[in-house]
Amino acid sequence: MLVKKFIWILFLILVPINLYSQNSYPINRKSIRLDGNASFNSIGGDSYGDDRSNSISIGSGVLYFIMPKFAIGGICDIYCVDNVGVSLGIGPSINYYLCNLDSKMYPFLGISILFGHGNDDILGCTYTENRFLFTGGFDIMIFKNAALSLKFFHQIERRKFRDVIFVNNKFGTEIGFSLFFL
Fold it and tell me: Considering Cα of 144, then 145, then 146, then 148, what sign does the dihedral take?
């Protein structure tokens, strides 16, 4: 029942936006991209020893196209690692789209820097972190201004627990929806 309501709400939001949208391309100058996503990640590094852990995250972002195919903006995400702790990050983002404006599938490359704060329940402390995120993916248009987003990413994170610095890496896949306002 909940899924049915979600589909109806999504339909009631996307159809009017699609009808209202102008005759322009989603990745053209002055367009805005709003997105929301969820991801599953594999994380490892100094703070995990020789092991790798799994994490899940949810996030959102906004991009403004300052020229065709080139957008700047910001992202925010929150993730949980094996029910050990939670981290929140926010920062700037840049995307470049690798296709023609009139395409139905928009491949892109992106880079982001996130500044975060989190807590570790096992160590019983909080930490600060800087995350460098490299992404590649596709926005697959399902309406004139709505897309299914698929992303693959590699993230390098630098965490500071008290006075100790750990460097970790994360690989993951994200899936989400994007809305383009033309």
Answer: positive
pLDDT in tens, the chain (182 residues): 656 665 666 555 655 555 444 447 788 889 999 999 888 777 766 656 666 677 788 899 999 999 999 999 999 998 887 667 788 999 999 999 998 888 889 999 999 999 998 887 777 788 888 999 999 999 999 988 899 999 998 989 888 887 888 888 888 888 999 999 87
pTM of the entire predicted model: 0.79
How many Cα neighbours within 13 Å face the side chain of 155? 30
- The number of residues in the chain equals 182
β-bridge pairing 32-45 and 70-81:
unpaired
**C-beta atoms surrounding 119 within 10 Å:** 14
**Largest pairwise CA distance in the chain:** 55
- Rounded CA gap, 42 and 88, in Å? 17
Beta bridge partner(s), residue 88 = 78, 117
